[in-house]
Amino acid sequence: MTGAPFVGSLRxxxxxxxxxxxxxxxxxxxLDAGPVxxxxxxxxxxxxxAYRNKVPAAASVINGFGKSIGLVQVEELGVLETPIALTNTxxxxxxxxxxARAAIEANPQIGRDWPTVNPLVFECNDGYLNDIQxxxxxxxxxxxxxxxxxxxxxxxxxxxxxxxxxxxxxGGIGSASRVAQLGGRSFSAGAxxxxxxxxxxxxxxxxxxxxxxxAVSDKAKPEQGSIIMIVAxxxxxxxxxxxxxxxxxxxxxxxxxxxxxxxxxxIALAFTTAYTVPHDADFVDVPPxxxxxxxxxxxxxxxxxxxxxxxxxxxxxxxxxGRDGRRRLSLNDMQAGKP
Length: 339
Fold this sequence. Notes:
By secondary structure, the protein is an alpha+beta fold. The protein contains eight helices and 15 strands. Helix content is 23%, strand content 28%. It comes from Caballeronia glathei.
């Protein structure tokens, strides 16, 4: 996060990304070819088989202008069955097919002796920079992003974030982490965002309305775009508590200047790595769960890490030129006065 201010009062983990939650890895596949500026990003909750060893999860739809796949079953069952995939709006179906194929290859019983798999794909519309009508995303791009998953990963104009815009600047992938103290123990919370939302005059960084100084005009444009916010933790929570945690992502989003406009799809998902739910178990071995009355430090960690992750996306991004010569300047280039 070169030049990016640090927000909040909690300390970050050593990596300062979602990978500070043990077991979580991230990978990208980036398409950078003239008018095609897009890609796929994958978040793996652990290194094993996500179908056989599911992790507890829950989502909050803050504003539902989106075309994601898999949220209904996550809400009903409270677990993830695949890695989390991010891509552009028209790539959702292709990536979901790739997730299903990968799960079937690892578990041939899926859809026959076993239930079908629930792909989980989130999207934002990168059509300002990317020729989204080219339908450039292929199943192989998901596989490449999955194979690239690691604790060290790029942020900014990469993967699913390649063609994204944020506050009329270059947006994309951002990540951050915080450490919370609960009940005499330390727990990590990390966030990864796909930032593609906001109007420049509203941009707020560490409480400063810097967008007003950068904006050429403050004409009333509708807020369009979306943001996907993934929150991971190693704290022992159930799916009900994880839904409460996911909702706190909205606090971090609001601090950056978003009002969740009509045309903005704002979705948060939270999961825990504290335990898994085996696919074929009769009983689930659940550790003692945190009391709801002790969750405030974790809520703060989620809000701070989402806010920091959005700032990270802006400061990590590089300027990109895409379809029809359209260009999005990075925040760094805008502040430096570069064309």
